[in-house]
């Protein structure tokens, strides 16, 4: 089915499929601190999933695909959450910049994103091709599941 892009696929299904692809490919460089680090100071514990770095990388790749140019600050805001301040009202807190920076650097090493001349990162041609191919297989799997 021609003409399927990442925009045509449900975000959760696409991120899961692309994370599985990244893990299966084995090229994404995983830092040594992924089992102990928190993803933001609003969190009390580190992520419970063993594959959380692959899932974050897939989410970042999709985010960069959907926008022209994305920097670490914008990703921090997108992955942030509410901080529980006890009896005080909750407030939005940005996520860890180090995690998003390392994800972007890892995606840049495998050629999914590249540095934009206007600042930030943009999706590369090979990255766009890979993401569209995963989106197409995800749509095909959904259609097979409906039958």
TrEMBL record:
<protein>
    <submittedName>
        <fullName>Ribosomal protein S19e</fullName>
    </submittedName>
</protein>
<feature type="region of interest" description="Disordered">
    <location>
        <begin position="119"/>
        <end position="147"/>
    </location>
</feature>
<dbReference type="GO" id="GO:0000028">
    <property type="term" value="P:ribosomal small subunit assembly"/>
</dbReference>
<dbReference type="InterPro" id="IPR018277">
    <property type="entry name" value="Ribosomal_eS19_CS"/>
</dbReference>
<dbReference type="GO" id="GO:0003723">
    <property type="term" value="F:RNA binding"/>
</dbReference>
<dbReference type="InterPro" id="IPR036388">
    <property type="entry name" value="WH-like_DNA-bd_sf"/>
</dbReference>
<comment type="similarity">
    <text>Belongs to the eukaryotic ribosomal protein eS19 family.</text>
</comment>
<keyword id="KW-0689">Ribosomal protein</keyword>
<dbReference type="InterPro" id="IPR036390">
    <property type="entry name" value="WH_DNA-bd_sf"/>
</dbReference>
<feature type="region of interest" description="Disordered">
    <location>
        <begin position="77"/>
        <end position="96"/>
    </location>
</feature>
<dbReference type="Pfam" id="PF01090">
    <property type="entry name" value="Ribosomal_S19e"/>
</dbReference>
<dbReference type="InterPro" id="IPR001266">
    <property type="entry name" value="Ribosomal_eS19"/>
</dbReference>
<dbReference type="GO" id="GO:0006412">
    <property type="term" value="P:translation"/>
</dbReference>
<dbReference type="GO" id="GO:0022627">
    <property type="term" value="C:cytosolic small ribosomal subunit"/>
</dbReference>
<keyword id="KW-0687">Ribonucleoprotein</keyword>
<dbReference type="GO" id="GO:0003735">
    <property type="term" value="F:structural constituent of ribosome"/>
</dbReference>
């Amino acid at each position: 089915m021609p003409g399927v892009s990442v925009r045509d696929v449900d975000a959760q299904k696409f991120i899961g499929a692309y994370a599985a692809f990244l893990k299966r490919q084995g090229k994404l460089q995983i830092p040594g601190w992924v089992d102990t680090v928190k993803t933001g100071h609003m969190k009390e514990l580190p992520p419970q999933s063993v594959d959380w770095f692959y899932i974050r990388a897939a989410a970042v790749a999709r985010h960069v695909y959907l926008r022209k140019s994305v920097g670490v600050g914008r990703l921090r805001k997108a992955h942030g959450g509410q901080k529980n301040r006890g009896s005080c009202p909750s407030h939005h807190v940005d996520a860890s910049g180090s995690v998003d920076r390392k994800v972007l650097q890892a995606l840049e090493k495998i050629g999914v994103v590249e540095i934009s001349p206007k600042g930030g990162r943009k999706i590369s041609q090979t990255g766009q091709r890979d993401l569209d191919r995963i989106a197409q297989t995800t749509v095909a799997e959904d259609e097979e599941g409906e039958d």
